[in-house]
Predict the structure of PLC-like phosphodiesterases superfamily protein.
Amino acid sequence: MNVSKKVPALYTLREIEGFLVANPSEIVTLILEDHVASRDGLTKLFNKTGLRMYWFPVEKMPRNGDDWPIVSDMIKNNHRLLVFTSNRSKESSEGIAYQWNYMVENQSSMDHSRGLKDVLKSCHAATGNRWANFLAVDFYKRSDGGGVFEAIDILNGRLICGLNDVSSCRVQISTMEVAMWL
């Protein structure tokens, strides 16, 4: 989709709904800079597009440092759409998670002199050895080495199987499956 051209939110959300239908094992996260002023405006929009059926309920989101559910449970329960808003009042009024109740971010000023992999490691240590669930970056095309995509592979590897990259998880899982059949 061409993001430089303005399109109604309805079309974008229908595109997301189409992706979720076509990819039943994928999870999508939306972090909305929310300026919708009409009462229940976002709720109506998500209902109209059919996305509400994929919604991860705000009451099931982890609180006070609790862990998120595992991905396979989210898929099994069809809770494959995480929606966060920048508007605090929408959590109580529309059941849309206020992003800062569930996320923290480091100051961008500490990222400029270090690579993204080093920032991930620093954040991991600073949060009591917890890996980030989300990685948000600006200017993803401007990076040294593997950049954002390498950092995501590392992060997913750590979260999924505790290894250094997600491709190692596939090898570990395949090896476990083979060992189970021997």
Helices lie at 9-22, 41-49, 71-76, 89-94, 116-126, 147-160, 166-181. The longest helix spans residues 166-181.
